[in-house]
């Protein structure tokens, strides 16, 4: 008998060892896949950075060419003005002594050249291609808006799991007022005159959702701004609704999980402090107020 028991224990030991080996193998597989995925994601971001940098370089080079063309044209006009200015200074220094041309005629000729030059070198004639610049700026802004619309990627992924949540007024504690749409719960000091219902919380400021899930990924957002204490979590429909508070609190037993916020600190609760419990029963979202 003793030998049989030892043999059975040895077989069980081998089974456990085999399971541990498989679990370690699975762990290494997950780490390897995660590492590979992380490297791929980093490479994609680096590629996006290179693409954006190249696009920025090309865009700036187009603007630079426009600037260079305009600056060169202005340099030519400045040089034309400098040439005439030197001629005038030479005439002033020489005292206009050329005997073939009368001083008055020389001044008139100079005035004509100045007028012609001022007309030809009007600064308003040289402009950047503003239409092209505006188009480049517009395209750049559209690219920025598109990128912003796609990130953060993690939040877009979460929102792909978005689930509708409607609060079930028949489960709400009498000091909670549920909006007609079921999308808002408001605390009041007054005990509301609400119908008696076996599913209503009577000791804890909780309210359940109408929806119930038994699988999949689900995401929701809750506005709790201005609150210094709140709890949000999941629970099985079998959660206690009446009696001691501990039986109804989220995360204080094996039938619920919750995220708790108090005065700037966050804590996750399940089974008191244990976060290992799992179950395939359907769960409901529960919103709890302890004010």
From TrEMBL:
Gene Ontology CC, one term: cytoplasm
Keyword field: Ligase, Metal-binding, Zinc, Zinc-finger
Pfam families referenced in this protein's UniProt entry, alphabetically: PRY
Domain B30.2/SPRY, first and last residues per copy: 145-291
A GO molecular-function annotation: ligase activity
UniProt-listed Gene3D superfamilies: 2.60.120.920
InterPro entries: B30.2/SPRY, B30.2/SPRY_sf, Butyrophylin_SPRY, ConA-like_dom_sf, E3_ubiq-ligase_TRIM/RNF, PRY
Recorded coiled-coil stretches: none
Protein known as: Putative E3 ubiquitin-ligase TRIML1
Organism, scientific name: Labeo rohita (Indian major carp)
Upper classification of the organism: Eukaryota, Metazoa, Chordata, Craniata, Vertebrata
């Amino acid at each position: 008998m003793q030998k049989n028991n030892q043999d059975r224990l040895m077989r069980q030991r081998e089974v456990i060892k085999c399971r541990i080996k498989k679990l370690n193998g699975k762990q290494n597989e997950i780490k390897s896949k995660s590492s590979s995925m992380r490297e791929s994601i980093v490479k994609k971001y680096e590629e996006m950075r290179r693409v954006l940098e190249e696009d920025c370089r090309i865009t700036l080079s187009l603007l630079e060419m426009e600037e260079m063309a305009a600056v060169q044209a202005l340099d030519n006009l400045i040089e034309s003005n400098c040439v005439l200015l030197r001629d005038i200074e030479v005439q002033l220094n020489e005292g206009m002594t050329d005997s073939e041309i009368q001083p008055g005629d020389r001044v008139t000729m100079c005035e004509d050249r100045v007028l012609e030059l001022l007309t030809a070198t009007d600064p308003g004639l040289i402009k950047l291609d503003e239409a092209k610049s505006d188009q480049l700026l517009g395209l750049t802004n559209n690219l920025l808006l598109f990128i912003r619309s796609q990130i953060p990627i993690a939040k877009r992924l979460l929102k792909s799991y978005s689930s509708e949540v409607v609060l079930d007024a028949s489960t709400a504690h009498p000091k909670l007022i549920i909006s007609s749409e079921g999308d808002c719960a408001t605390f009041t000091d007054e005990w509301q005159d609400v119908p008696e219902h076996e599913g209503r919380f009577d000791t804890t400021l909780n309210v359940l959702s109408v929806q119930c899930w038994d699988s999949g990924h689900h995401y929701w957002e809750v506005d709790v701004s201005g609150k210094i204490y709140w709890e949000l979590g999941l629970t099985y429909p079998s959660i206690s609704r009446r009696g001691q508070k501990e039986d109804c609190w989220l995360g204080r037993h094996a039938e619920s999980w919750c995220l708790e916020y108090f005065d700037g600190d966050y804590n996750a609760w399940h089974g008191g402090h244990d976060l290992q419990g799992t179950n395939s029963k359907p769960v409901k979202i529960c919103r709890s107020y302890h004010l």
